[in-house]
Amino acid sequence: xxxxxxxxxxxxxxxxxxxxxxxxxxxxxxxxxxxxxxxxxxxxxxxxxxxxxxxxxxxxxxxxxxxxxxxxxxxxxxxxxxxxxxxxxxxxxxxxxxxxxxxxxxxxxxxxxxxxxxxxxxxxxxxxxxxxxxxxxxxxxxxxxxxxxxxxxxxxxxxxxxxxxxxxxxxxxxxxxxxxxxxxxxxxxxxxxxxxxxxxxxxxxxxxxxxxxxxxxxxxxxxxxxxxxxxxxxxxxxxxxxxxxxxxxxxxxx
Length: 254
Prior knowledge:
This protein has helices at about 1-15, 170-175, 230-245, and strands spanning about 55-60, 70-75, 95, 110-120, 120-135, 135-140, 150, 155-160, 180-185, 190-200, 205-215, 220-225. By secondary structure, the chain is α+β, with helices and mostly antiparallel strands. The chain has a single domain (about 20-225), classed as Jelly Rolls, CATH 2.60.120. The strands form three sheets. Strands 1, 4, 6, 7, 8 and 10 form a six-stranded antiparallel sheet that branches. α1 runs antiparallel to α3. It is globular, with a radius of gyration of 22 Å. The two termini are about 15 Å apart.
């Protein structure tokens, strides 16, 4: 009987571990431990072509910034939050910044929008969460282009928000991470823009997004990738059930 119980646990585990998430990929800034994100190899100091973050695109930048649409990883100064073995952020993410044609961090004053395009694998309500920090102020948005500010959730603005009149430029904006969470209704197969709008009040600017994740919102309808096991898991489950049948045969029969 113990062997049969073990087989049940094995079969159940094989099925659940293969469930897909609500989005095809969610990538942290700079580096990522997620296999289907483009992992970076950041180089301390001046940005180079080797540490461009192709998971994000800069869709808005101040005039005169001379910026390049692909953000680059940037060395974290003593004021920037970092933890773990990576001096440029955390063990799973690095700070990114806008660079000019000389591949040096832009110091233009104004709004930079860092956008990640993500494809929904489910239909229904999902909860998106993570930790972020900005230099100087920020607002999370959802939609095309510069996006529409998310109306409800937690931790969606830092330092008063990403505009000149509201930004208070606190050191805590980039000295410690802010946890955020919000819900959105999505349709499987549709591409959505997750935007981090950053207002720079002077000197260099930066964005750090870490532990980015999504789940089907508890208590709501959410169907698709999270409810359909991959073919490999079906095979494992059926195999486990077959073994279970053998394990439950009476011991007195051959």
